[in-house]
Every structure is written in C-alpha cells, then in structure tokens.
Amino acid sequence: LKNQLLTDHGHNPLMKKVFDVYLCFLQKNQSETALKNVFSALRALIYKFPSTFYEGRADMCSALCYEILKYCNSKLSSIRNEASQLLYFLMRNNFDYTGKKSFVRTHLQVIISVSQLIADVVGIGGTRFQQSLSIINNCANNDRNIKHTTFPSDVKDLTKRIRTVLMATAQMKEHENDPEMLVDLQYSLAKSYASTPELRKTWLDSMARIHVKNGDLSEAAMCYVHVAALVAEYLTRKGMIS
C-alpha cells in the first residue's frame, strides 16, 4: 500500500487512518514496554514516509510533536529519554529531507506545541522537561554526521526559544490572579512572535480564552478579530486570496 499511502505527499484518507492508530497509542495510557515499541514504530513511519510530516499541510507533524512533547515530561526517565530521542529523530530527519538546509517545519511545530501544552498539561516546564531539552541538545552536539552543519546551533536556538516561552509562562503563573497583568504578559509574548503568524495566533487564541473565562467578551472578540486579520494578511501575502 506504499504508493497509496504516499498519494498527495501522504495527506490522504488512508494515511490519515494509519496515523490516527499510531496517535491513539500515544494518547492512551500504555506500559513502559508498549510505549518503547510505539516510539520505535513511529521512527519507522517517519523514515518511510517523510513527506507526510515535512510537505504540504502541517497537521500530522503538529499532532505528533504535541504528543511526543507530553512524554518529554514523563515521570519515568526511560520514557523521557525515548521521547526526547524520537523528537530529535523527527528534527534530524526533517533536516536531511531538506538537503541539510533547515528543519523549519518541525522547529515551528515544536514551539507551537509547547505553547499549547503550557495551557493543557500541569507541570510542563519543570525539571523533567528541562532534562529532556538537554537530552535533545546533547544528541545534536554528539551527532558526528551533522557536526559541520548549522543543525546543532539551530537545535540550540530551538531549545533556547522553548525556555524563553517557559520563563514567560512562569511569570504568568505569578500573576494568574491579576487578569490584566496576565493578559499584558501574553500580549507581549504574542507581539514578540510578530514575524511568525502561527505562533502569534496561538498566543492570541490563549488571550481570548482568558478573556472569555473572566467574562470580558468584548476583549475576547477583539483578539479573534486580530486573529482573523492576521490570517487574512498571511493568505494575501501567499497569494491565496486577493
């Protein structure tokens, strides 16, 4: 079924069903042994069908990054190690796929997933997660095949950006009982990603949810109007609308 799975760069109903099975294994509680086998199977899937994750729509790459990052915060060190290495493999494979030029697709989806996880997972950004970031950095520094490329420094930049987001989130936690200060911090973070529409949208959506939670519906509406304008501007630049 390989040719059918590769139709439209892997963005077809058959591949979607196959991928959803893999994703289901990650989303349900599994034993340590089962998870290690799932991670191994995912490596094979990424290796055999790279275009599914690095070409066309980013939905599958995004979903995979989100689930892997959750395991980077696991209480079990062995699972954190496996998850970190799988995430590194996803980035490294992306780098190879572009002819050793960049891994922009995975870089962006990892940052977006971290931003989403902050709101969804309690304790993200603690010691366990920081250790996983260090494992990823070490993998890049010790990979002899890409030692003389930009990859190690790009990985370092990614983990630095993640830590920046986590530090900003820690500040937000301190001001969680001060809605106005909390939204100001989120606005600053959204503004810092002005050059990255997807990330700016993520934080504007988060701001909107806080406004809705506090009953500030007009402010939430303004956030969504801003998001709509951001999407329209992006599509216009891409020539998809006029």
UniProtKB/TrEMBL annotation:
GO BP annotations, alphabetical order: small GTPase-mediated signal transduction
UniProt keywords, alphabetically: Guanine-nucleotide releasing factor
Residue span, DOCKER domain: 191-242
GO molecular function terms listed in the Swiss-Prot or TrEMBL record: guanyl-nucleotide exchange factor activity
Keyword Metal-binding set for record: no
UniProt feature coiled coil, ranges: none
Superkingdom, taxonomy of origin: Eukaryota
Protein name per UniProt: DOCK9 protein
Organism: Leiothrix lutea (Red-billed leiothrix)
Gene for this chain: Dock9_0
